[in-house]
Design goal:
The protein has one domain. The strands form 2 sheets. Strands 1, 2, 3, 4, 5, 6, 9 and 10 form an 8-stranded antiparallel beta sheet that branches. A two-stranded antiparallel sheet has the order 7-8. The longest helix is centred in the N-terminal third of the chain and has 52 residues, at 13-64. The protein is of the alpha+beta class. It starts with a helix and ends in a 5-residue tail after the last strand. The chain has helices at 2-8, 13-64, and strands spanning 73-75, 80-88, 92-95, 99-102, 107-108, 116-127, 130-131, 137-138, 144-153, 158-167.
Length: 172
């Protein structure tokens, strides 16, 4: 009869404390994993937004075509020409410029504009060009124009996404 009383008496204080500690550790691990999941989800969303901005800039370059993209400065040491800037709707392809975008991909006037989250720059590198005088050149039927777009998170100062394509006079 004594043994049946011991079986019915319930949890001891030590067992209750151990069970509580196990639950606390499990709950803390669950909240920690939620935080990691939210951070990962935010990084994926940010990278996706940056990729969409890159893609939009490349599509703009494709619409303009190889002959209508700006010319850069020819370097005799590399036998290539390079131009860096951005596409600004009001001014077109603007040398030395940077384009700014909101998190949703809408272009804004500057980095200080409310909602500015990303900056984008386009680099066009031309190879196999027709040399002119000095550093001038022109595009030939065999010129390859490598267009690279880099999108940077303004607050972090890190490049979130880079995308590239090649343009040629008659298409690839």
């Amino acid at each position: 009869m004594a043994s049946s009383r011991q079986r019915n008496r319930g949890f001891t204080l030590v067992e209750a404390v151990v069970a509580t500690l196990i639950m606390v550790v499990a709950i803390a691990a669950m909240f920690g994993s939620w935080s990691t999941c939210f951070q990962s989800s935010n990084k994926v969303a940010e990278t996706t937004a940056a990729a969409e901005i890159c893609q939009a800039n490349l599509e703009t370059a494709k619409v303009f075509g190889a002959l209508n993209m700006p010319l850069g400065v020819y370097s005799t040491s590399t036998s290539t020409a390079s131009w860096t800037g951005a596409y600004i709707p009001a001014t077109g392809w603007t040398s030395g410029a940077t384009a700014y975008y909101t998190y949703g991909g809408a272009q804004v006037a500057s980095a200080t504009t409310a909602g500015a989250f990303f900056s984008a720059q386009v680099t066009v590198t031309d190879s196999n060009v027709l040399l002119g005088t000095g550093s001038s050149y022109s595009i030939s039927a065999t010129t390859i124009r490598a267009v690279v777009v880099s999108v940077t998170n303004i607050s972090k100062g890190t490049v979130d996404f880079t995308m590239a394509t090649n343009l040629v006079q008659g298409g690839l």
